[in-house]
Amino acid sequence: MFGRKSKGFIQMYEYGCRNRPVAGLDVALDQMERRIRLWNRFVEIEREIRRKARLLLSDEAEQREIGELQTRISTLRSSILARRKTEGRNSAAIEDLRKAVLESRTELAALMTRIKLTRNERVIRSKAAFKALQTERAEQVKQAQRDSMLYWCNYDDVRHAYEVARVRVMREGTELREHHWNGSGRISVRFQRGLPVHTAFTRRGLRLQIEPVREEAWTASVRNVRRKLSRSRVRIRVASTPNSQLPVWLEIPVVIHRPLPQDGIIRSAALIRERLALSWRYRLILTVARPNPPARVSGERPSVAIDVGWRVTPVGLRVAFWADTLGSHGDLVIPPSDLAEFAKIRELWSILDKHFTEIRAAVLAWRGANQIPEGLLPHFGRVAESQLRASLLRLLDEWQRNRISGDDEIFERLLTWRKKHIHLWTWAVNLRDQLTRRRLEHFRHFAATLVKEYETIFLEKFDLRSFSRISPPEVATRSFGGKFRVIAAPGILRQVIENAGRRTAVRVEGIKARNTTKACHVCGRVEEWNVAKQIVHTCICGATWDQDHNAAVQILRAGQAQIGMGTIRENPAVMS
User: Fold this and answer.
1) Which of 381, 396, 488, 514 is deepest in the core (most CB within 10 A)?
2) Is 184 in the same domain as 277?
């Protein structure tokens, strides 16, 4: 992540597609669906192999006892949530349930400890059996690839994603999840030895062909001219004809809004199809390997430290604060206008939930007072069991084909609800897409400024996933982060800064620092105070500082000490 050194780096180029593909879409959709099926088959294989491996490490009685304890904990937690929903989060009496959950968790932990004590012995004893399981898994994976009827680039892509994911879930102690086919997906082509960029702009490519555009597409002074000249077409091989093995091409119009590097080597190309409200959007992703840029002369520019986080201030949502070795500082803020639009999204979803709750209750009440035909009973049942809007929409579609005598009023209410639902849902989805893209562009401008002005960038190392984990119901405190963490997207910001550093040979260093917020940069004293409610703090030594600015200075000093740089230019005026 931080401080990687290599002979080159990988850069992703994303291009928007003006409209749907003009050729080969049916074959591409078939390949996308087959990719989903192959992934789900890999998940089945992995679950079965892991089940057999667990049996080797523990007997059936232990596995049954583990399952019973996990079921008991899950039931108790559901009871806590139900009681809090009925009586209120803070006023609900849940001490008895909380005590039962903690006792069950303690019992489960003790059981797992007993199993682990004998695990090493069992692993040694079952070494041959584990090896046989891995051989079995490899054979089943190969057979699944052969049965998938996928073009080799696509099954290789799915296989690679599966191998990476299975290692991650084993490390995290979780399970792989199945994917559902809903029309969204991707197809890809890969180049083992790489495809030079200039070769892609010819008709000689066997898997990828890009229609060339004139240089004025990026250099013309008139925007309208650039937009017209940047229009191109891309052909991606999605399959081969059964008999002659000739390529089957997916052809799609794209906008090459920025040039590909002439010294780059294309490693892969992928076309992504995703739903945006009621329409489909297509994106072309090119993965390009490039040689490292020339190293900058050490010491010619200052260094900067960035404290990444989120905090509401009078001028907006602060997502980062920076301080450099020259004594300058500043912050990155999402403006109040964008925060208001994010709030509008939450308001729209709240309205959607309210409308759905009302119409669902009305439909179920009507069902109880009327005779329902056999063909519609399963659809009404799914509406009663599910809280998903899709179940009600599917009921309406089926109901429209099989009308019931005396259903005019309730059916008209359903039609009115669907019309409003589609309008508000489309509004919310499109607004969210616009805001996330605007935020990404804001982050990219910030990163571009950093790499232009500084030689070294220091970022604090910490696991952002810890802020997104949801606390179990029996825990009294709420999870830290909430809606503002999602809006601030600190992980995206950090990734954008790292990518900008790789492109421009700017050093991005991860710094392990402690108490960056609570330790005073003047005297070094660590005080306990409410960092969530106070932005500005006055230390016992008399120094007054903004806690995010203080954290940035602490990260900068820790970074300089870590890599042996000089000292920060002191400027007391900017710290007050």
Assistant:
1) 488
2) yes
Specify the residue for token string 């945006």: 276
DSSP state of 93: -
Q: Are residues 286 and 239 in the same domain?
A: yes
411 and 476 both lie in a single domain: no
454 and 562 housed in the same domain: yes
| Mean pLDDT of the region 106-122 | 81
More confident of the two residues 62 and 259: 259
Q: Which of 151, 134, 48, 546 is nearest to 323 (CA)?
A: 546
Percent of the chain with pLDDT over 90: 45
Q: What are the angstrom distances between the C-alpha of 43 and each of 144, 152, 178, 323?
A: 11, 19, 6, 47
Domain range holding 408?
342-426
What are the residue ranges of helices labelled H in 185-239? 197-200, 216-219, 223-229
Model confidence band, residue 574 (pLDDT cutoffs 50, 70, 90): very low
pLDDT, tens digit (0-9, with 9 covering 90-100), for 75-102? 988 888 888 877 776 667 788 888 888 8
How many beta carbons lie within 10 A of that of residue 45, not counting itself? Answer: 21
On the CB side of 548, how many CA atoms lie within 13 Å of its CA?
23
Rg (Cα) of the chain, in Å, rounded?
A: 29
DSSP string, 490-530: HHHHHHHHHHHHHHHT-EEEEE--SSTTTB-TTT--B----
Structural domain includes residue 208: yes
Residues 454 and 387 in one domain: no
Say if CB 487 and CB 537 are below 8 A apart.
no
pLDDT recorded at residue 575:
40
Q: How many separate domains does the chain show? A: 4
Q: What share of the chain is helix, strand, coil (3-state, %, to 5)?
A: 50, 20, 30
Phi, psi (degrees; rounded to nearest 5) at 539: -75, 165
Based on the fold, state whether residues 350 and 405 are members of the same structural domain: yes
Q: Tell me the HSE value of 120 on the side-chain side, using a 13 A CA sphere.
A: 2
Which domain-ending residue is among 426, 442, 470?
426
Query: Does residue 156 lie within any of the structural domains?
Result: no
Asked whether residue 479 is assigned to any structural domain, the reply reads: yes
In a domain, 326, yes or no: yes
d(CA 497, CA 460): 12
The 10s digit of each residue's pLDDT in 335-369 is 999 999 999 999 999 999 999 999 999 999 999 88
Residue 518's pLDDT is 77
pLDDT of residue 573: 34
Domain boundary among 379, 399, 426: 426
Closest of 367, 361, 362, 365 to residue 379, by C-alpha: 367
The answer on 551 and 448 residing in a single domain is yes
Please tell me whether residues 314 and 368 are part of one structural domain: no
Residues 6+ apart with CB under 8 A from 119: 57
The CATH number of the domain holding residue 333 is: 3.30.420
